[in-house]
Every structure is written in C-alpha cells, then in structure tokens.
Amino acid sequence: MSVSVVAFFNNKGGVGKTSLVYHLSWMYADLGLKVLAADLDPQANLTAAFYGQEQLEELWNAGDRTIAASVGPLMQGTGDISEVRPALVTDILGLLPGALSLSAFEEELSDVWPRCLGGNPRAFRVMSAFWRIMQQAARQLNAAVILMDLGPNLGAINRAALIAADYVVVPLSPDLFSLEGLHSLGPTLLRWRQEWKERLRKNPEADLPLPDGRMEPAGYVVQQHSVRLDRPVKAYEQWIARIPQVYSEDVLKTKASPGLKLEDDPHCLALLKHYRSLIPMAKEARKPVFHLKAADGAIGAHLAAVQEAYKDFKHLAHKVAGRIALPLPAVA
To answer: Which of helix, strand or coil describes residue 145?
Structure first.
C-alpha cells in the first residue's frame, strides 16, 4: 500500500509554498505523526529551511541523500533509481533533500513523456521515478504521509512530481497574480491527469509500480496578507473576495455560490496571517515560528504571536488531514 503524497503547488512564485510545507511538517511531527517532507524544487529552498550551509554541503556530498542522486542512474543511462537515505530531522520527521543538480533531469523528463504513449519501458521508469523514490523513503521512515514542495512553474519536473501526487493544496496570495495563476493551473492539472491515465494503459511492465496520477484538489490556503484590526487591508479585499469563484471554476470546474465569502468557502483550508518579524527570527533560529522561545527573541507581543501561530498551524494540519483521510494520533 502506498503512502499518500500531498503536493503544495502554485505556478505563481512567492506565495509561501515552501514555508507551508516546512511548518506543516513540523506541526504533524508535533502531533505525533511520522511525516516525510520531499523537496522536489531544484532551488532546494525547503532543504535550506531545515539545514544550514555546512549541513547542506554534507548532504549533497554524501551521494545517497538527495532525489537528484537517486535519479542519477536514469540520467546517465546506467540503470534505474538508486536507493536514497532520507535525512532525519527528528525521529519522526524525515526529509528527502533537494539539490540544484535536479534541474538537469528536466530535459530527460520532457523527452520521455511522449514515449510513454508508445509503451517504452524506460519512459515509464523515468516518469515514475519521483513517486517510487518518495515511496521508498517513506517506507524507510514508516511515514504516514508525504508533503511535497515544488517550484513555481509548469515544466517537466513538476509534471512528473504532480502525477506522483494524490492530493494538491494550492497556496495563494490575495493578489491578481495568484488569481491569474489559477486560470492556468486548473486546466493544466486536469490535462496532465487525463494524459497520464492515457499513458498508464500503455505500460508494458505489469510489475512496475506506478502512481495513479490522482492529483485531487484538496483546497487552498491564503497567506501573507496584511492585517489591520484583524481584517485584511482594503487593497487586498477585492482579490480575497474573488478567490472562491476562481478556484471553483478553474480548479474544480464547478460553479461557486454567488457572493460566497472566503471564510464560508469549504475549499479554503486557512487564511494565515503574515507573521512579520517572526519569520526572520525563525529563519535565524532554524525552527518553525511556533517553536520560537524567549531565548530566540520571542518575548512580549512576539510570544503571543508564537502561540497564535501554533493554533493556526494546528488547525490547518487538522483541516488537511480531514481532506486526505489522514488519521492523526489520539494524543493530537
């Protein structure tokens, strides 16, 4: 039985995808759930959030820790994926590290996509590589869920990563660019889902495990909005008001109820505040914002904000778990 893969994806950058995966990974670990965070962005920002430069260098030099290293034999034409050893952040939180060298796999993934239609065995091994690597790593950790971070584009790497996803959570910013991104994201996910189903029928190796390419929309998260008196500033209100309709029409291909508000939209998983000065503080301490302590500088109003952030991300973790039928430990 495979482990569910949840992709956090938007083809628009700067919407907090990496921060969301990072914080939810920590929150699930706090709640007692074994989780694997997978960094499939060649920029490796998620990996850099967990580790400093010296640790990063060690990971990249180890030769068997990154996704790029695991697909190396496929890129070199010498074999199938090699076994990867996920990094242990804690005893129940693992990381499948990213690497800049993963970008070299883009052309290969682009080339083999049409070859799947011809039943080419190697093409299916290449296209399923990310999914098989993540499943292998999750089994090593006995992880209950895989949270996957992706770069902001609709290229071949992300296509291969998304066909490995069971669910897709869309992080959004309340602005025109996020709404425009949804216009292209929804149809693209639908097309890739349909095209992968067509290719699955051509698989010549019955014993080769392949992802279903489910890519089920699990909802969206709105982040990084400015707040004044506990309400988004007026400049963003027009964009927030349009999100439910655009998400329904372009991602779900359904009609939203006229005038549906964000807070009443069942597809909105959370409206997260901008944590402002907590973010650089957390980056310096290399921990999630809700783990900040007085020793990190979280005192007074900052400490109250830390406690609020914990509540926000715990609520979000439960919302996502409910959408993907992920049982949380009773102690949560």
So the answer is: strand
